[in-house]
UniProtKB/TrEMBL annotation, chain A:
InterPro entries: ABC2_TM (IPR013525), ABC2_TM_bact-type (IPR047817), ABC_2_transport (IPR000412), T7SS_ABC-Transporter (IPR051328). Keywords: Cell membrane, Membrane, Transmembrane, Transmembrane helix, Transport. It is a multi-pass membrane protein. PROSITE patterns: ABC_TM2 (PS51012). The chain crosses the membrane at residues 43-66, 72-91, 127-146, 152-179, 186-205, 243-265. Coiled coil: none annotated. Residues 41-268 form the ABC transmembrane type-2 domain. GO terms for molecular function: ABC-type transporter activity. This is Transport permease protein. Its main location: membrane. Belongs to the ABC-2 integral membrane protein family. It is found in: Cell inner membrane; Cell membrane. It comes from Phyllobacterium sophorae. Pfam families: ABC2_membrane.
Length: 269, 342
C-alpha cells in the first residue's frame, strides 16, 4: 500500500459537497434497511409473537369469550396491531444501546453531519419495522377471516396511525437506551413497563367484564384509547375524539421525551 | 468546494494542533491537567503514557467528542469551542474500540461513511472499493464485520477514518491487542499516511511504538505532560547508557546493589521481579569498573548487557517510578521485545 492510494485528494474522488441533513438521515435509513437484510431473524422476532398471539387467542379463547372465533377475531385483530407496534417500538432503544456500546456513535459524532441524523435513521428503521409487522398481521388476519369493514381506506389509515403510535412509544426506549448500560437491561425494563399496559387494556377482553377498579385503569390506559381508535378506523366508525385521544399519548411522549433524548445524547461523554 | 481532501484548510500557516492548558475533570480526578501541545503539520506525534494517564481523554477533547473544562485548542486553525463543525470536517478519529457496524459488511460500512461524507451512488462504492484494496480487505469485503479478525477490524476502522483524507488523524492506541504481524502492517499504513501529508496524533502505551513511528513524543502521566521531545532527546535526557545485569545467586542482589551504587554513583533500579539490576553509566570505563568490583567480591553474573536507555528507563527517570506496577511486569530493558501484546 502506498500513500497515494489511500490519499483522496483530487481527481479520483468525487465527494460532492456537504450533504444535507435529509440525505444524512436517509443514509442512516439505508443502514436500517441493511440490518433487515443481514439479520432477517429480527423480522421473525418481530412477527412471531403477534402471530402466535393472534392464533392462540382466536382459537383458544375466541370461542369462550364472545361466542365464536370469527366474532372474536373481528374484535381482537385491531388490538393485536397496537400491541405489536408497542412491543416493537423498543427495538430502536436497543439498537441505540448497542451502537453506543460499540463506539459507533463516537464515529458518527466526529463527522461533520447533522448531529441528530443517526436518530432519524433509527426512526426510519422503526417505521419500516412497524409497517412490515402490521402488514403481515393484517394478512394473516384476513386469511383467518378478519374483514376490515372500512375497506382499503380504513387499512391505509390504520397503517398511518400505527407508526405514529410506535414513534411516540419509541422515545421511552431511546431514553432508556441512553441511560441503561446494556441492550438487555433496556429490554427487561421495557417488558416490565409494557406488559401491564398491554394486558390491562381492551385489546383482548371487553372491559365491561372486569372488576370496577381495574376498569377505571383500563379505560384511561393509552393502549386502550389507541385500540379503540384502531377498531374505529378499521370498522369505518371512528370519531375525531377517539383519534385525538389515541394520538394524545404519542404527542405528549414526543413533546417531553424528544428534548430529553437530545439532552441526554449531547451530555453523554 | 470539494470535500474529498481535508488537507487544505483555511489557514495554511497554522499548526495542525495547538492546545493550551487543556483540562478535564471527572469528579475529583483531573484526567487531563493543563496540557499544552504544538503539533506541526504533517508530523506523526506520539502521546506516550501508561493506562489511565489521560491519553484517551485528551484525544477525545481534541476530536470534539468531549468539551474541555478549561483551556483551549485549535485544530488546523479552527477553534474547538467556536467552530467544532469545521474541526470535525478536517479530522478523523479511530478510537480504541472499533467503531464499526458489526452487522454490516466491511464494504457497507465504508459506503455508509462515504455517503455521510457526501459521495453519491457510484462514487461512494468506488471510494469504498479503493480503500478495501488499499487496506488488503478486498477478499473480506462481503463478510459481516462480526466475522473479522482483530487485525482486519483495526484496518477497516482506520480505513473508515480515511474515507475523506483528514488533515489530522487521531489514533487511539492503534495497535493494542494486535499480533506482531498485524501491528507491523498498521505501522506501515500509518507511515504511508504521514507521507501523504496527514498529520497524525497517536496515543500508545508501547514505548517501541512511539519510538518507531513518532517524530516527537509527549510523555504524560496522571494527566500532566512530564516531558516532550524526539525519542533521541528523551533518551539523552536520561543519560548515555545503562548497564543491566542478572546474578546467579539472587540472594546477593542487595550486596551487588550497594557495590554498584558505590562504584558508579546514582541509583540502581530493580526490575519488578527484582532479578535484574540496572544502573545508568556515563562511560564504558565506569561499567568496566563496576563489573570488576562485582567479580572481586565473588558475585557471579548470570549475564549482563550494556545499551542505550530504553524508553521505559526514560519513563523511570522522568517520573521516578517505573511503569511496571501499572503494566505487566517485564524486564526493565524489555519494552521493545516484551511489552507489546503477543
Amino acid at each position: 500500500m502506498d500513500g497515494a492510494e489511500i490519499g483522496c485528494r483530487a481527481d479520483p474522488c468525487e465527494a460532492s459537497g456537504q450533504p444535507s441533513a435529509l440525505s444524512n438521515a436517509l443514509v442512516f435509513g439505508w443502514r436500517a434497511v441493511l440490518k433487515f437484510k443481514h439479520i432477517p431473524e429480527q423480522l421473525f422476532d418481530l412477527v412471531m409473537s403477534p402471530v402466535m398471539f393472534t392464533l392462540l387467542f382466536t382459537f383458544v379463547f375466541g370461542g369462550a369469550l364472545p361466542g365464536s372465533t370469527d366474532t372474536y377475531l373481528q374484535y381482537f385483530l385491531p388490538g393485536i396491531l397496537v400491541q405489536t407496534v408497542v412491543f416493537n417500538s423498543l427495538y430502536s432503544g436497543m439498537g441505540l444501546s448497542t451502537d453506543l456500546g460499540e463506539g459507533l456513535f463516537d464515529r458518527f459524532r466526529s463527522l461533520p453531519i447533522w448531529s441528530l441524523s443517526p436518530f432519524a435513521g433509527l426512526m426510519v428503521g422503526d417505521i419500516l419495522r412497524h409497517l412490515i409487522a402490521s402488514l403481515i398481521i393484517l394478512f394473516i388476519g384476513i386469511l383467518l377471516g378478519y374483514r376490515p369493514e372500512a375497506g382499503i381506506p380504513g387499512v391505509v389509515a390504520a397503517l398511518l396511525l400505527l407508526p405514529l403510535i410506535g414513534f411516540g412509544f419509541g422515545w421511552i426506549f431511546l431514553v432508556l437506551g441512553l441511560i441503561m448500560r446494556t441492550p438487555n437491561t433496556v429490554m427487561t425494563m421495557a417488558f416490565t413497563g409494557i406488559m401491564p399496559l398491554v394486558f390491562a387494556s381492551n385489546i383482548m377482553v371487553d372491559p365491561a367484564t372486569m372488576p370496577g377498579w381495574l376498569r377505571v385503569f383500563v379505560e384511561v390506559n393509552p393502549v386502550s384509547l389507541m385500540t379503540t381508535a384502531m377498531r374505529g378506523l378499521l370498522a369505518g366508525n371512528v370519531t375525531l375524539t377517539q383519534l385525538g385521544l389515541a394520538l394524545l399519548t404519542p404527542a405528549l411522549l414526543t413533546a417531553v421525551l424528544a428534548p430529553l433524548t437530545l439532552w441526554l445524547y449531547r451530555r453523554r461523554n | 468546494m470539494m470535500r474529498h481532501s481535508r488537507l487544505a484548510t483555511k489557514d495554511a500557516e497554522s499548526a495542525a494542533i495547538e492546545a493550551r492548558g487543556l483540562t478535564k475533570h471527572f469528579g475529583n480526578v483531573r484526567a487531563v491537567d493543563g496540557i499544552d501541545l504544538d503539533v506541526p503539520r504533517g508530523m506523526i506525534f506520539g502521546i506516550l503514557g501508561p493506562n489511565g494517564a489521560g491519553k484517551t481523554t485528551l484525544l477525545r477533547m481534541l476530536a470534539t467528542l468531549l468539551p474541555p473544562d478549561a483551556g483551549s485548542a485549535k485544530v488546523l486553525g479552527y477553534d474547538l469551542a467556536a467552530s467544532p463543525h469545521e474541526v470535525r470536517g478536517s479530522i478523523a478519529m479511530t478510537g480504541q474500540f472499533a467503531s464499526l457496524d458489526e452487522d454490516l459488511t466491511g464494504r457497507e460500512n465504508l459506503i455508509l461513511l462515504a455517503r455521510l461524507w457526501g459521495f453519491r451512488g457510484q462514487a461512494a462504492k468506488s471510494r469504498a472499493g479503493d480503500l478495501l484494496n488499499a487496506f488488503d480487505l478486498a477478499d473480506a469485503s462481503a463478510k459481516q464485520v462480526k466475522d473479522y479478525s482483530g487485525g482486519m477490524r483495526r484496518r477497516l476502522d482506520i480505513a473508515a477514518s480515511l474515507v475523506v483524507t483528514p488533515g489530522v488523524l487521531f489514533l487511539d492506541e492503534p495497535t493494542t491487542g494486535l499480533d506482531p504481524k498485524a501491528r507491523k502492517s498498521v505501522w506501515r499504513m500509518i507511515r504511508s499516511l504521514a507521507e501523504a501529508g496527514v498529520t497524525i496524533l497517536l496515543t500508545t502505551q508501547y514505548l517501541e511504538e512511539a519510538d518507531q513511528l513518532a517524530a516527537r513524543i509527549a510523555v504524560i502521566d496522571h494527566g500532566k505532560k512530564i516531558a516532550e521531545g524526539t525519542s533521541r532527546e528523551l533518551k539523552a535526557a536520561t543519560g548515555s547508557g545503562f548497564l543491566h545485569l542478572n546474578l546467579v545467586e539472587t540472594g546477593r542482589l542487595g550486596e551487588a546493589k550497594r557495590l554498584l551504587e558505590e562504584k558508579v554513583g546514582g541509583n540502581v533500579q530493580r526490575s519488578a521481579e527484582g532479578t535484574t539490576l540496572s544502573i545508568m553509566v556515563d562511560t564504558p570505563q565506569k561499567a568496566n569498573r563496576a563489573l570488576a568490583a562485582l567479580i572481586d567480591a565473588d558475585i557471579e553474573l548470570a549475564d549482563f548487557s550494556m545499551g542505550a536507555p530504553s524508553l521505559d528507563e526514560v519513563f523511570f527517570a522522568l517520573t521516578g517510578q517505573s511503569t511496571e506496577p501499572r503494566l505487566s511486569p517485564e524486564r526493565s530493558d524489555g519494552w521493545s521485545r516484551n511489552r507489546l501484546p503477543r
